[in-house]
Amino acid sequence: MSALENTLQIEIKLEKEKTNQALLKDHVEKYSELTQSMSKILNSFEQRLGKLEHTILPVYNITKNLQKQQQNLDSTLQYMEQVLSHYDASQDVCNLIHQGPSEGNIGSFLDGLNKLKKAKDYFLNNNPQSVELENVTSLFNNGCETLNNHFKSLLKKHNSPLKPVDLLDMIYIEEDSSNEDCPSIKQLPPSAREELNVIAQWLDNNLRREYVQIFGDERSEVIMRSLQNLKDHQKSGSWGNEPLRTRHGYGRAETGAKKTTSARLQQIFERKANKMFMKASQTLGQSAGLAMRKNSSFGDILAAEEYGNDNDQELEKYLVLLLGLQKLLVWERQLLNDIVPPSRHNEVFSRLSQPSIEMVVKDAEQITSKVMRSIGRKEWSAALGIFSALKHVQILQPDIDRICDATQKQQLSGVLNRLQQTASKGLEQFIESVRNDSGGGGMVSMTSSTISYGGGSNVPRDATVYELTSNTIWFLEQLQEHCDTIGGLLQTEAIYTNDLDRISSQKALSIEQKNKALLGIYVRKVLAELNYTIATKSEQYSDTATKQLFKLNNTHYILKSLQRSSLMEIVALTEHDCERRYQKMIQDLKKAYLGSWSKLLSFIHPLDDMPRPINGKVKDKERATIKDRFSNFNKELDDA
Question: What angle do CA 60, 61, 63 make, to 5 degrees?
Fold first, then answer.
């Protein structure tokens, strides 16, 4: 039964598969018919496309050629128009060129010059022998010359020298004041600066560099006349009493008491010195291990001592002049940024700064020559003024270096070199003056402002302190205020650096200690010459007691002055037993002085040698002996 059922199921499935196979075959036949039909359609479409391409392609090529011909024709017409415009350029812009540019409307004039430039280039490349080239070139050159003249006249219109009070305000106002507060910037308003910049850019792009000379000469004249006005003002009676105008209240006097020029300069250099100290502390304070300090004497331009002589006033005026030049050059750098192309900055700046730098260098030479003549007359306050001026020029040096290139730095370094040479010469001549104190005694005349050595004076009759001694100590005391400056001078001389190396080999020294040590070496040399001179001068006394008393008084004065003024601490860096040696000298001089009385005392001492009375009576011989000894004692005492 089960086998029959299986057979029936198989037959049913077989019939079903046959039916499906017949259906599939039918579908395949239909798809084949559709494929053949589609193939016929595609073949027909391909044939039609071929016919269309054969028909349209020649038309397309013809159209393309026509379009190219049209473009060529348009280009030819355009080029012809350009060529014709080159021929008409001279006539088109002739009136514009002859009229010249007008302030505030420079664009149209530059357009005319550009048109001439294009025409010139065309004829130069295509027809260099043509008359048109000569006409265009001549008109172009005339236009450039006119443009240069306009550039110059525009500068002249806004280039007036600063009044002395305005320049002094630039010097005295805070360093962070805005550009709008500067009179120099107000001279050239933004519209003028913008027009000058457009002209300079065009001239530079067209290789016309005459503007470099024009700008440099015009601005150089402004700087020179501004500085000359300041110098003339310094010669007037109102110098040093000008009211300082406030930063935002321009033209309004500062309330309160007027400050002297020295006080204002002191504030300026204190600010600069503080900035230098802060920068040095940030860069070197931790990494280099250098012991640095804020030098309270920075910026004390003649403030510690109001010397008031001509040399010091000239040095003060010169420092103001140098500050004025530095301020003017700062603003000129800013004007260069606004007007002149960057590639010409150094060239123009060198030209505009050259005369003024030469002037301040020449003034420095004249002042230092005058100071050297004063030092030759042994007016040592002039040397102290040089130290102060040198210190402040060194403070100003970084500001100058920031605005100047190598050429100007080298020129301005001449000022520093002259001051350094003069200061070094002053130190050397002071030692020579102490060594060669004039033969009659070299009496020193000192006022509150000057020290001058006169010849032909004798030592004090009462063997008190020699004026050479007191004034030498006074001069050395003043040098303490200039320790850093003098240290920088002496470290260039082998005789001092050898001693410093010996000291440094024994213990490490900071920069401050090295400067003090160098000053200590100098003070030690001066004291050695002073001690020798005192010993030499003591020989003018006829008796031994006065000789010893003279040396004792002067040596004692030197010791007490060194201790009182802290000079002893400075000298001790180079000679640690200096104080003990002076004390020993004093003890030896005391013994020598007391020893000079031994002959006098020998007549009454010892008393045991004196004849004694017997029963209230003295023999005639003994009486004569006593009388003779007391007579000799009185005679020696009277002589003393």
Answer: 65
Which band of pLDDT confidence, cut at 50, 70 and 90, is reported for residue 261? low
Averaged over 242-263, what is the pLDDT?
46
Residue by residue, DSSP assigns 298-309 as TT-TTTS-----
Cα–Cα distance, 213 to 637 (Å, whole number)? 89
Asked if 302 and 388 touch (Cβ cutoff 8 Å), the reply is: yes
DSSP string, 529-567: HHHHHHHHHGGGSSSHHHHHHHHHHHHHHHHHHHHHTTH
Pairing of strands 451-453, 444-446: antiparallel
Work out the angle at residue 212's Cα, subtended by the Cα atoms of residues 209 and 213, and round it to the nearest 5 degrees: 105
Euclidean distance between CA atoms 233 and 226, whole angstroms:
11
Query: How far from each other are the two terminal CA atoms of the chain, in whole angstroms?
Result: 179
pLDDT over threshold 70, residue 280: no
CB environment 79-106: b (16+ within 10 A), e (fewer): eeeeeeebbebbeebbebbeeebeeeeb
Phi, psi of 482 (to 5 degrees): -120, 35
Cβ contact 118:86 at 8 Å:
yes
Beta carbons within 8 Å of 491's beta carbon, 6+ residues apart: 497, 500, 514, 518
- Please report where in the chains the tokens 């001509």 appear, as a residue: 310
The model's pLDDT over 312-330, given as tens digits with 9 standing for 90+, comes to: 788 888 988 999 999 999 8
Stretch among 400-414, 444-458, 485-499, 513-527 having the lowest mean pLDDT: 444-458
Q: How far is CA 25 from the centre of its chain?
A: 107
pLDDT of 550 over the 70 cut: yes
| Residue 258 predicted with pLDDT over 80 | no
Q: What is the CA radius of gyration of the chain?
A: 50
What single letter denotes the amino acid at residue 41? Answer: I
- The whole-angstrom separation of Cα 455 and Cα 133 is 85
- Number of other residues whose CB lies within 10 A of the CB of residue 192: 18
> Which of 156, 182, 167 shows the shortest CA–CA distance to 325?
167
Would you say 356 and 220 are in contact if contact means Cβ atoms under 8 Å apart? yes
| Cα dihedral: 580, 581, 585, 586 (round 10) | -20
Angle between helices 483-490 and 511-537 (to 10 degrees): 80
* Domains of the chain and CATH, by start: 3-158 (no CATH), 159-174+187-240+262-281+309-436 (1.20.1280.170), 604-639 (no CATH)
In the predicted model, is pLDDT for residue 631 greater than 90? no
Point out which residues pair with 452 in neighbouring strands. Answer: 445
Tens of pLDDT, residues 606-624: 666 666 666 666 666 666 7
pLDDT above 90 (res 469): yes
Cis preceding-peptide flag for 189 (omega within 30 of 0): no
Give the three-class secondary structure for 105: strand
